[in-house]
Structures are given as C-alpha cells and as structure tokens.
Amino acid sequence: MISGSFLKKPLFGLIIYRMGMAEKLTETYKHKGLRKNLVALLKEKGISDENVLHAIGTIPRHYFLDDIFLEFAYSDKAFRIGAGQTISQPYTVAYQTEVLNVKKGDLILEIGTGSGYQTSILACMGAKIISIERIGSLHEKAKIMLKDLGYKAQLILGDGSKGYAAKQPYDKIIVTAGAPSIPDVLLKQLKIGGIMVIPVGDEKQQTMISIMRTSESAFEKIVLDEFKFVPLLGDNAW
Prior knowledge:
Elements lengths: L11 H8 L1 H4 L4 H16 L5 H9 L20 E4 L2 E3 L2 H11 L6 E5 L5 H8 L3 E6 L2 H14 L4 E4 L12 E6 L8 H5 L1 E12 L4 E8 L5 E9 L11
Parallel strand pairs: 3-4, 3-6, 4-5, 6-7
Antiparallel strand pairs: 1-2, 7-8, 8-9
C-alpha cells in the first residue's frame, strides 16, 4: 500500500534518531572545506555541470551518515545506511545528476529515496521532486532529514518499480538502484522530451543508461559507464 504520510504510531527508533540529530546537524568550517575538496575531486573526475557541483558543495553529506562514518563523509565512497542499503558515492550521485540534465522547475520522479541525499541534491537544484522508497525506516528518516534541511519533496512509501502515475508525465526520472531491465511502466510516465537515467544489469554490476522519450512510442537510448548499485526491488524489478 502506497502512503505519503507519516505512520500514525511513532517508532521508538525514530525518536532516538531524531534526538540524536542535534550533534550531527552541525556545520563547521571543516565541513565546508571538505566539501570544497570533494567538489575539486569531482571536477578532476570529469563532472563539469556547475549546478551539480554547486549542489554537491552545498548539501552537508555528513548529516546523512551514521556517526561511525562521519569522519569519512566527504570521501568519494559509498556507505551503509541500514536495511541493506547504501548512500551512493558522491561521484555516482554527481554523474547521474549531470546526465539527467536537471533544470530549475523540472518535475522529477526519483525511484529509491534511500538516505535522502540524492533527493536533497535535486531539491537544491530547484527541481520539484516525488521520491519513492520501499523501506519504511528509510522513508521516515528521509522525511525528517529533508524537513530539517528545509527542502521540500513529496516522499512516498511504496514500490518504486511501478513509478507513480498520479503525477505523470515527468520531465525526468532517476532510478537509484540497479534494475534487471528498463521497466516499461516508467518509460510511459515520461513526458515527450523527458529523460530517464537508470542503471541496468545484474545484481553485481550495471551499466548507466540515459533514455529520452522522443514521441508517444519512440525512445532514444544512450549506453554510458559501468557502476554498482544495490538491486531495484519490486514487481517490475528483481
């Protein structure tokens, strides 16, 4: 069952998480300096979209990590966020976002909210976001995080492999988990001229694919680089 609202009964674990945010939600010159270094590294790796780099340099990635990983928050690595999921390495986030060609005001469907970091990057760039997450604990934490950061997004608990037809068509769709194939249902939710970026492959490695809808029945596909994501789960995935 899909739901866009908080659970009626608060979870004890979420209360602990919320109380523990006070120390984590601090911003120092050190954090800003580390983000500046991260942006420089991403430039060296080929990221050139200034809007993407600005968002990476703005969003405090250390907010999204467990305390054990805070020291490494601005290294270009993925980290576990619980429930068998990860926060993608900054290069992967920047790469997908650059390929998506985000414009201010774009209506973007994000499949896989996860920690909410990618969601925040898109929001920082001025997009209107609908983001779907299938794991309740991550969905709830992301809602808290986005609110505390002051970014707006419609977060939905449900099966992202089905998309979200209620708000279609979308300017852009971004899938942040590895799919065995490109779900037709997501293609149908793109507007003409819209772009979807999705990693496709097996459960160990995927190839990033960019797809543009050119007409009601035609799509142009560009095959890009190889990455490793957690599997996309759902009726139209694994």
